[in-house]
């Protein structure tokens, strides 16, 4: 049997493209460049996913191609971008387009005076190297997309760095916006959040295409490190163009008595894979993992999760809700792992699917691996049609069928939306969902 060519394994992300990328970031520390070179070798030699791999069960691999993308897109200017309405205000924001910072709003005076660092990853690599080295991509990929996680590390050019010192509370959220501009553009967004002991912050991450009709390749990630007694709320709003191939890797580490709430909204892309890992590393740590998906047309959303309990008296709660229209497809595969020392673990996992079409497809694969004997762990999955009696009730009061369906979907989602305390962020999430019913 003939060997698979290197080009077929790398697609547009050739060694020549990687050399061009390294030239753009050659001013960064040598240890980081060495990590990137090693990551590229892992990417270039790893096989493409196969259906025989359990981590890709039910996924559509026929459309999973790395060809036809611009691995090192040209820089753009914010004042030339077609879409510049950010839609949220807060303590400050960073806006990236095609992997580069294009504009920023500095932290407000009260927040800046608290010692919070809100900067680019490139600046942090040069000025806060020890923090970045300890936490950036510190958790290896565990959910099947090792090849694409390596590609992300290899081509990661810039992103957001947020460090909250011990005992500091950010009263307003900070926003990070990642744009892809130009047909065929490849982007590699990343956000690194480090909350030290008893710190508190809310971070909103937005992922957008400048123009709706453009095709992109998006391969992003985020790292959340939540120190002893710290509280982090992280919201990710994925609204890429409907022609985008998207990967997103989320890694959370929660220390003693830390509390993390992460909510991922999935609205855009033609095919999107989201892998979320939460490590409860010390007693009292708690992680709440939430997701909402609005799928229509032939969109596919592939969701893989891992809750790892490594210490006693930890807790996690996962709730993923999907609303499926037309011929859309979702895949949920979640695993709760409880280590032998993690007694008194309390872990919950639920995937609920609302089917709005007879042609839509929802696949659910929840699982448990428990090695301790004094725990409470439950998991489950449901798929159900819209309640026709509720729909009829709304229509009998003059509400059109499409509006009735939208209202019922929002009722289905409210259990998750209601957990967002910041009013403007709640409204932003709601507006993104509502737009899906207009297309």
Question: Mind explaining what this structure looks like?
Answer:
- The protein has 439 residues and is α/β, with parallel strands linked by helices.
- Helix content is 22%, strand content 37%.
- The strands form two sheets. Strands 2-1-5-8-10-12-14-16-18-20 form a ten-stranded mixed sheet, covered by helices on one side. Strands 3, 4, 6, 7, 9, 11, 13, 15, 17 and 19 form a ten-stranded mixed sheet that branches.
- Strand 1 (92-97) and strand 2 form a beta hairpin.
- Helix 3 packs antiparallel against helix 7, helix 5 crosses helix 6 and helix 8 packs across helix 9.
- Mean pLDDT is 93; it is low at 1-7.
Notable traits:
single chain; 439 residues; alpha/beta; 2 domains; ten-stranded mixed sheet; 10 helices; 20 strands; 22% helix; 37% strand
Annotate the secondary structure layout.
Blueprint: H1 6-10, H2 15-24, H3 30-45, E1 92-97, E2 100-105, H4 109-112, E3 117-120, H5 121-127, H6 129-135, H7 146-155, E4 160-164, E5 174-180, E6 186-187, E7 190-195, E8 200-209, E9 217-226, E10 231-239, E11 245-254, E12 259-266, E13 271-280, E14 286-295, E15 300-309, E16 315-324, E17 329-338, E18 346-355, E19 361-370, E20 376-385, H8 388-395, H9 401-417, H10 423-436
Parallel strand pairs: 1-5, 4-7, 5-8, 6-9, 7-9, 8-10, 9-11, 10-12, 11-13, 12-14, 13-15, 14-16, 15-17, 16-18, 17-19, 18-20
Antiparallel strand pairs: 1-2, 3-4
């Amino acid at each position: 049997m003939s060997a698979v060519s290197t080009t077929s394994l790398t697609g547009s992300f050739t060694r020549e493209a990687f050399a061009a990328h390294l030239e753009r970031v050659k001013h960064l520390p040598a240890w980081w460049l060495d990590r990137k070179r090693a990551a590229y070798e892992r990417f270039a030699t790893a096989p493409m996913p196969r259906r025989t791999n359990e981590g890709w069960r039910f996924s559509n691999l026929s459309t999973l191609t790395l060809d036809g993308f611009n691995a090192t897109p040209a820089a753009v200017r914010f004042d030339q971008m077609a879409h510049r309405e950010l839609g949220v205000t807060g303590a400050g924001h960073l806006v990236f387009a095609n992997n580069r910072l294009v504009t920023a709003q500095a932290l407000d005076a009260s927040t800046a005076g608290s010692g919070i660092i809100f900067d680019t990853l490139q600046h942090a690599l040069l000025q806060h190297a020890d923090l970045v080295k300890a936490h950036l991509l510190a958790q290896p990929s565990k959910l099947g997309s090792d090849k694409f996680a390596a590609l992300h590390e290899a081509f990661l050019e810039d992103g957001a760095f947020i460090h909250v010192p011990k005992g500091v509370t950010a009263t307003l959220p900070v926003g990070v916006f990642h744009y892809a501009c130009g047909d065929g553009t490849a982007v590699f967004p990343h956000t690194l959040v480090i909350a030290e002991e008893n710190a508190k912050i809310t971070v909103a991450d937005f992922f957008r295409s400048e123009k709706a009709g453009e095709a992109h390749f998006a391969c992003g990630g985020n790292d959340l490190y939540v120190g002893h007694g710290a509280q982090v709320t992280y919201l990710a709003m994925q609204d890429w163009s409907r022609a985008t191939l998207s990967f997103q890797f989320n890694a959370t580490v929660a220390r003693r008595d830390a509390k993390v709430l992460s909510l991922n909204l999935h609205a855009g892309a033609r095919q999107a894979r989201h892998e979320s890992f939460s490590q409860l590393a010390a007693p009292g740590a708690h992680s709440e993992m939430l997701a909402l998906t609005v799928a229509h047309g032939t969109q596919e959303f592939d969701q893989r999760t891992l809750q790892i309990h490594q210490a006693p008296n930890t807790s996690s709660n996962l709730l993923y809700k999907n609303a499926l229209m037309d011929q859309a497809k979702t895949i949920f595969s979640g695993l709760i792992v409880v280590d032998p020392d993690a007694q008194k673990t309390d872990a919950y996992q639920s995937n609920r699917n609302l089917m709005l079409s007879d042609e839509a497809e929802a696949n659910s694969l929840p699982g448990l691996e428990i090695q301790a004997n004094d725990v409470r762990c439950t998991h489950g999955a449901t798929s159900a049609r819209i309640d026709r009696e509720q729909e009829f009730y709304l229509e009998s009061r003059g509400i059109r069928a499409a509006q009735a369906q939208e209202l019922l979907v929002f009722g289905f989602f409210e259990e998750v939306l209601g957990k967002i305390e910041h009013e403007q962020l709640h409204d932003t999430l709601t507006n993104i969902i509502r737009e899906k019913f207009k297309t």
